[in-house]
Write a structure and sequence with these properties.
By secondary structure, the protein is of the alpha+beta class. It is 24% helix and 26% strand. It starts with 48 loop residues before the first helix and ends with a helix. The radius of gyration is 20 Å and the shape is globular.
């Protein structure tokens, strides 16, 4: 990951500090590492009472304009999470601690998005998915999917990173230290929406862990992009929790 110069800034063509544009010459990796489409809806927690009071005052003072502002605010900050589910996930998903899930604001297990499959030659692929719990995980939107594939002796993290760099938006990448035998991250920030998506890719021995963490934050009247360091730390926490127990 170290062949390209670092860029600074937060614009579409300038990645966040510490992230890199891909070096030239990436080759198309073998198939099998698909890029799931970005997920849907919106959720909350943090008290917004003072701002709501101001908006109500605006409604009374400004009439129609205040009403529009109040409607926009309530729509963006509505609780879009789901009631707490009791879905049972594959046993391996239990590697991810409740603390890591709470930090990432994805405490709701999603059994429909989770599975465990034998892929032949003693290889197994496990998928663990979580989303937000209504009234618990805050405003905005968060979803996390963790993929764990065993017995991939010939798989290189660089190949998987290259695959994810061929996705929508403007992806940037960087290597990660202190995580497994080799690790990297690919961050995608849409230039025309608040959607932010980060992949953490880790190899530990012959096992590869991929964390796909997607979301956006609720602003006052519209959705906003999450803070990159905070977003990255939450995704890394999920990867660290999974890898620690492998």
């Amino acid at each position: 990951m170290s062949g390209s110069p670092g860029l600074t800034g937060e614009t579409v063509n300038q990645p966040p500090h510490g992230w890199q544009q891909p070096p030239p010459g990436w080759q198309q990796p073998p198939p099998g590492y698909g890029y799931p489409p970005p997920p849907p809806p919106l959720p909350p927690k943090k008290s917004k009472a003072p701002l709501i009071i101001l908006l109500i005052i605006g409604l009374l003072v400004l009439g129609g304009g205040g009403a529009v502002a109040l409607v926009l605010y309530l729509d963006v900050n509505k609780d879009g999470g789901d009631p707490k589910r009791a879905d049972k996930l594959p046993a391996l998903c239990g590697n991810v601690s409740e603390a890591a899930l709470a930090k990432a604001r994805v405490t709701n297990p999603d059994g429909l998005g989770s599975s465990e499959l034998d892929e032949g030659e003693n290889s197994k692929r496990t998928i663990c998915e979580w989303s937000q719990t209504k009234g618990v995980d805050g405003t905005g939107y968060r979803r996390a999917t963790v993929y764990v594939t065993t017995n991939l002796n010939d798989t290189d993290v660089n190949e998987i990173v290259a695959d994810h760099m061929k996705t929508r938006g403007v992806p940037v990448q960087k290597s990660l230290d202190g995580l497994g035998d080799k690790a990297a991250a690919v961050l995608v920030r849409e230039d025309d929406s608040a959607i932010t998506d980060i992949w953490i890719i880790v190899r530990k021995g012959s096992t590869v862990v991929q964390v796909d963490y997607t979301g956006w934050d609720a602003g006052v009247f519209t959705n906003t992009k999450p803070d990159v360091p905070e977003f990255e730390a939450a995704a890394r926490g999920l990867a660290e929790a999974m890898v620690a127990k492998l």
